[in-house]
Amino acid sequence: MTDAIQTKGAVLVVDDEISIVNMLQEILTYEGYRCHTATRGDAALELLNTISFDVMLTDISMPGIGGFELTEKAKKINPRMLVIMMTGFGDEFSYDSAIESGASDFIRKPFTFTELMARIKNVKMQEQLRMMSVTDELTGLFNRRGFFSLAEQQLKLARRNKKEIFMLYIDVNNLKEINDRLGHHVGDIALIDTANVLRTTFREPDIIARIGGDEFVVIPVEPDADNMKTIIRRLQENFERHNGSEKRSFFLSVCVGVSEGSSSIDELLAEADKSMFEQKKLRRKK
Fold first, then answer.
1. Which residues, 6 or more positions from 182, have their beta carbon under 8 angstroms from its beta carbon?
2. CATH number for the domain including 123?
3. What confidence score (pLDDT) does residue 234 get?
């Protein structure tokens, strides 16, 4: 059973009907999942802030925070978590509404455990296939396609909440020189190291992507202008720390450009790219 638990991961069940919660917990535990439960949306959010779940099963109609609102907030905390919505009100809620809120699937009550297990297996398989198509093979970060998909979702959410998003455009300095002097294999190591520093600097909900040869983009989730200054300073400090701790045949550094707004992803990219280029010009003059 231990091997099954480690393989299948953690599931959060959220439903205000205790009998359903207990039944689902029993069957999911038997099937090899680590199962946590909550009977309220706010209690589910507390768990989500402390535990990383692979799948969340949530009822749509609950007192207080309902399933749609819970899903939206949960995806901010853990964007990679899969969500399956449950409802006994099939005529009132649709599959399309569930998907638009961020869910991966929608199941009508009553359902059999066989159907539930099949749906969990299916959404996990679909997510694996999706991740293969949106992941940069070298660094394991999102690729350009994955970045635009997630960035558009983040932009829609920001517009809905009448907020703006920040974007960091990060360019690795002297990568061509590293490739020419030490070989492309070492250049690949420099890119992998850059990706690892970015992972260390940013949080799990932040969108981190490699969109070109030596170009990376990050959208931090809900920072403000002051936080952005702190984030950039921490990023540069982390590269300095990396250079001091890793015995490489090259020195790793980056130039960072920033944009802010809610116009379009293309415009934000262009503005951040321009900001980064200005940083590169200043660096060359030193």
1. 249, 250
2. 3.40.50.2300
3. 94
